[in-house]
Amino acid sequence: MNEYNFQLVLSFFSKLQNKICDTLIQVDNHSVFKKDIWSKKNCQGDTRILKNGKIFEKASVSTSDISGNSLPNTSTNKNKNFLNCLYRATGISVIVHPKNPYIPTSHLNLRFFLVYDSQNLLKWWFGGGGFDLTPYYGFTEDVVHWHQTAEQICRPFGVDLYKKYKKWCDDYFFIKHRNEPRGIGGLFFDDVNKPNFHHVFSFTKSVGDGYIKAYLPIVNLRKSYTWSKRERDFQLYRRSRYVEFNLLLDRGTIFGIQSQGRIESILSSMPPIVKWKYNWKPRPKSQENTGNLELIAKYSPKDVTTNPSLICKEARACAEARV
């Protein structure tokens, strides 16, 4: 249980940050990331922001290393006996808000915790981790590709792992006060430290490396789609749901505030422009209705792997579309 390598995790998060930033810069082919190295009492980090790009309106790729005397209560669901203990945590957070409404917003988060419990025994776990996708206009083949990639990531680590972490993601990214999912899910895991550090770290690395494999084909397929003010208005409206979740429900955001982290970095996940509309409803049979909300209802929280014939058909269409 106590065998771990904090520096190894730090190094992986830093390399992953570079890899993701380099990939997004190449795809955008217009803007670059501005690096902001920051530090304050008991914490430091590297926040990188790309804005006003050709493809990405805003992207935030951040790493942090923080410590404190009292572990915030949002850091864990399982290990509540560790609350108010000495801790150290590191993580990487990625949020991409595209300009084109036909490209989904994507999110990746990975964290590693060290804690000294009340008996002064060191404990560790990986938590608050995974990735999810938030489409504005849904395409079945994008959903299938996203979840097939997630399933392929999980497969070497357990036959039931994808189903477990898929459901966990659906449950976590559910906007309770709206009674609707934030998007079409992905993977979410928390409080994981078994069977050993090497195994869990290997899985965490697979999730981090798999994020680009899951997201990039969707971006490349949809980036040439033309759009108008109507699609833009709908995108901004749906972004408001993203903001509501992050500010009211997201444990990562609340943890950052409770740990007295750097607020500019904590809120770097926010989209640059958002609209709220009072009691707005999409027109029946409109693209805003059938293209997004019905797709979300169909695939979340249902497990897409329960219909192999559909997946095979849509996977072939997805592959053909990307040739």
Automatic annotation (TrEMBL):
Alphabetized GO MF terms: coproporphyrinogen oxidase activity
Record-linked PROSITE patterns: COPROGEN_OXIDASE, TRANSALDOLASE_1
Pfam family, one: Coprogen_oxidas
Pathways per UniProt: Porphyrin-containing compound metabolism; protoporphyrin-IX biosynthesis; protoporphyrinogen-IX from coproporphyrinogen-III (O2 route): step 1/1
Matching InterPro entries: Coprogen_oxidase_aer, Coprogen_oxidase_aer_sf, Coprogen_oxidase_CS, Transaldolase_AS
Biological process, per Gene Ontology: carbohydrate metabolic process; pentose-phosphate shunt; protoporphyrinogen IX biosynthetic process
EC numbers for this chain: 1.3.3.3
GO cellular component, one term: cytoplasm
Keyword terms, alphabetized: Oxidoreductase, Porphyrin biosynthesis
Similarity field: Belongs to the aerobic coproporphyrinogen-III oxidase family.
Subunit structure: Homodimer.
PANTHER family: COPROPORPHYRINOGEN III OXIDASE, MITOCHONDRIAL (PTHR10755), OXYGEN-DEPENDENT COPROPORPHYRINOGEN-III OXIDASE, MITOCHONDRIAL (PTHR10755:SF0)
Name the record gives this protein: coproporphyrinogen oxidase
